[in-house]
Amino acid sequence: MHPESATFTRTGQPRPNVFRLALHPDGPAGRLANLEEVRTLFLERLSRQVNATGDTELQRLHEEVSRYPIPSSGEESRHDPASGHRPSPIQVPLRIRSPFGELAMFSTMATFGAPADVTLAELAIELFYPLDDFTANTLHALTRGQS
User: What whole-number distance in Å separates Cα of residue 52 and Cα of residue 37?
Assistant: First the structure.
């Protein structure tokens, strides 16, 4: 077993987590229309966790994901004022380029446990919801097997 079993799988590969999955250039990062905003939000969120806990594994994770190269999508990743979505420090939409068009999602996060309960303090669930009618209709059609 690898000495850092909480961080690595049995094969020695880093355990998947939302930071690695979302920001890795071979993951969804290349499909995000607003990668710069999402990357900044994720790195700030991880940095706050590092500062709040002093956890060295989280510090290593922050160093790892902040070094990921930013994939070139061939498209400009600036905010599109025509979309009606305005960037905000409170809520950054997840804008995903898909074969059906750009899907816009927002998320909420729930955390569990008491401040002194270390095992539950690390449990968080992030849920994504459609931000506009186009996204909602597209996702509903996809769940019904329509495209």
Answer: 23
